[in-house]
Amino acid sequence: MDPAQSITWRKSSLSGANGDNCVEVTTDLPGLVAVRDSKNPSGPALAFTPAQWRSFIGRVNTGAFDA
Description:
By secondary structure, the protein is of the alpha+beta class.
């Protein structure tokens, strides 16, 4: 079985009905969190360790990247 077939990608519940301009994330890969553009599901994905992903989400939640 192709490992890519068993991966479940998910979008935020805050993405809205249209689902435009969204990223998808999966934690189905051992030791990795992968992120991709929902408009280009066959395109590249970024991979992070769980610690890197938690750090990024923590900084997002504190507004570190707000303009």
